[in-house]
Design brief:
2 strands; flat; mainly alpha
Length: 268
């Protein structure tokens, strides 16, 4: 299960998606999320699914990597769908048992919610798969740069987000090693009820927290040794510049958003 968590991973490549400016990709994901939550009917979600499929094709990442990233979220996705199916109010119900009621509208809402979460997760994962943490930090800092006028620590916030994203795969690998070591000593994480399984995770959490704090201390020491003092006066090795492909991509994202909004108004 831990190997299926792909958040924070970067797949190097030379596709159009990889060459886009990181600011463009952040803005495109923002437009994508707005369009996704604006979709109301089957046509709107079909447009978003086709858009994601086209982006996956262009990125050369592969659909399998995105689907693998959904596996740790299967329970949350299924639970959300069940809640929408049984607790959506309607005037006519297909099946009733106590407070549980199933209607055509409830089933439709459940399907829409499941599709929305899946498309949302895969779309945001695609950005991290095609953007290195360093470029993602530079892009985020550039977009938030106007907030410096009101004394918001933009560089520090961007750096913290990038470090957190970068260390997710490292901590997952560390957790997998600790679990393997505990299993070799006879630990059992699979049997028992949910409370017994949660109790069995305590021997994993303690060394994991110790390892995380040790890595944080080592990182802080390394940054201090390299005379890191925040973003004031720092220059960039690779200066971000918008290209023609960035403007074309942003225009395409705006068109998709407008199309979804029109479909929503038409009830499609």
């Amino acid at each position: 299960m831990l190997k299926d968590i792909t958040l924070g991973q970067y797949f190097p490549g030379n596709s159009i998606a990889h060459r886009l400016d990181p600011r463009t990709k952040i803005l495109l994901v923002t437009l994508y999320i707005i369009a996704l939550f604006s979709a109301k009917g089957w046509m709107g979600y079909a447009v978003m699914a086709v858009t994601l499929a086209a982006c996956v094709k262009v990125s050369h990442v592969g659909l399998r990597a995105l689907v693998r990233g959904l596996k740790p979220l299967v329970f949350i996705i299924a639970f959300t769908g069940i809640l929408n199916m049984f607790f959506t109010p309607d005037t006519h119900y297909l099946w009733e048992w106590g407070i549980l009621r199933v209607s055509v509208k409830g089933i439709e809402n459940a399907l829409f919610m499941v599709i929305r979460i899946m498309l949302l997760v895969m779309g945001t994962f695609l950005m991290t798969y095609t953007t290195s943490p360093i470029r993602l930090t530079d892009g985020l800092e550039s977009l938030l740069n106007p907030l410096k006028k009101i004394h918001v620590p933009v560089h520090e916030l961007a750096m913290m987000m990038a470090i957190a994203l970068r260390f997710i795969p490292t901590l997952i690998e560390e957790t997998d090693k600790i679990m393997s070591a505990q299993k070799a000593r006879g630990a059992d994480f699979d049997s028992g009820n949910i409370f017994q399984k949660a109790k069995a995770l305590v021997p994993i959490l303690v060394p994991l927290f110790i390892s995380a704090f040790r890595r944080a201390d080592e990182l802080a020491t390394a940054m201090e040794c390299r005379c890191y003092h925040g973003g004031e006066g720092r220059t960039k090795l690779h200066v971000l510049k918008y290209q023609r492909r960035d403007y074309v991509a942003l225009a395409g994202g705006a068109v998709i958003l407008a199309l979804v909004v029109v479909l929503r108004r038409l009830g499609a």
